[in-house]
Amino acid sequence: MSLRRDLIRDTVLYGVGDILTKAIAFLLIPLYTNALLPDEYGVYQLIVLYVTIAMVFQLSGMNVALFKHFVVTPEEAKRRELFTITLIWVFFSSIAIIGLSILLSRPLSELVAGTSTRTDLVGLAALSSGLDTILLVILLIFRMEKRPIDYVAYSFIKILLILAGNFVLVWHFRMGVSGILLAGIVANLVILLPLIYRVSSYFVWPISRKLFAHLLMWGIPFIPSSLATVILTLSDRLLLRYMDGFESAGIYSVGYKIGGAVLLLYTAFRFAWGPYMFELAKKSETARRTYPRVLNILIAILGVAAMGLVGFSQEIFSLFVGELYYSARAVLIPISLAVLFDAASLFFGAALQTRDRTIYIPAVTSLAAIANIFLNIMLIPKFGFMGAAWATLASYMLLALMSFRIANPFMPVKYNWGKLFAIVFAVSAGMAVMWHLDLLLMRIGIFCTFTVVILFCLEDNPFKMLPKGRLSEKP
């Protein structure tokens, strides 16, 4: 099978699976927006921020180190050792984080819930982060071995369990944020038991201390960059909580989540693209020829999705969102556009991973994160949660720019800037026109027109964007 068919197959599988799982997850939006008040949803989003930060330290970049070394290592015995080392690390680091969270439960409760009495939320969040971390590493096996069906199947089952748990605990028993966390914990435990049995053949002993240290040193630079990414994507909720209240944070988060529908398409591609990105980089000329073509098409697809999401947001909100959250619709334009620049950053910064220049990653992401904090502080007092939304877009634009400026010298790639700018401009124009139209038929016509314009900007045949033949073949 050719590289082109491999990538298309994996992207479709990850895409269909991710769309199905996210589609089910989106059913939680009407549940949450009808069962939780905006300030309660704001508390939940701050819990999500805490869980995400905890996972950064539990992983310590070991998941990235495992992925990179596993893909390029042909020896099965060493692959198993890499996996064992990573799992041991995340297991004990998770226990440490849970213990620390219990000790600091009162101040953490004050931070995320506005009161020191909700220590139960802190404990549940810490346990949830530990289980999520372990599950993430185990599921990496299926991605690294290019088994998307297995990956999607387990992910889909987990989402079904979370959905069922939320309906029982949040809707029926009205347990609020505690019910959301408990539903996730139960789902993780149910999935982990058969998964551990299935991947038990990957566990080996003894393990090399030298290899352990090498993986840890390779992964540690990702801690500051991962924290910067968390700041870039979630810190605005915390700033909104202090500068505009829990309610503002909750409303903004709903708009952000719906705007993230475009992100699920990008995520599906990124999951499939990871192994190919490293393999293509083995042959610099192949990478230089392939990266720009793939990026153009990816931006076009994401752009059409973003334009459709914004253009038909009236119908989407009336179907899926409680009335108290309708004002979140305005967030969609900047948030969905930010995904396009996030996707561009993946390609612009690829050389930092493929050329082992991970030490530069913290600098790139930290700069964008600092800019995000500064812009939020400047804009939130004047514009509320819309200030946070535009700060997010500006920060991702800066992330793309800095990724290119720092990474490109290590593996120079010539991108077709004319095509990229034309696509982004067409997407933005289509959004602006559709946003101001009320008649559905007119919006459908505008959407179709701008979609044709975007496809015209591409020129290349999407099915001929990749070189034929397997990567392992000699040129």
Q: Can you tag this structure with a few keywords?
A:
475 residues, mainly alpha, 2 domains, disordered C terminus
Domain count: the total is 2
Radius of gyration: 22 Å
The assigned structural class equals mainly alpha
Order of H and E elements:
HHHHHHHHHHHHHHHHHHHHH
Count of DSSP-assigned helices: 21
Which sheet architecture does the biggest sheet show?
Answer: none
Helix content: over 70%
Number of strands: 0
How does this model look, in words?
There is one protein chain. The protein is mainly α and 475 residues long. Helix content is 81%, strand content 0%. It has helices spanning 3-26, 28-35, 38-59, 62-72, 76-103, 105-113, 119-144, 148-172, 176-198, 209-219, 222-243, 246-259, 261-281, 284-311, 313-320, 332-348, 350-354, 361-383, 385-407, 417-435, 440-458. Helix 11 (222-243) packs antiparallel against helix 19 and helix 14 (284-311) packs antiparallel against helix 21 (440-458). It is globular, with a radius of gyration of 22 Å.
Describe the structure in brief:
This protein has helices spanning 3-26, 28-35, 38-59, 62-72, 76-103, 105-113, 119-144, 148-172, 176-198, 209-219, 222-243, 246-259, 261-281, 284-311, 313-320, 332-348, 350-354, 361-383, 385-407, 417-435, 440-458. It has 475 residues and is mainly alpha-helical.
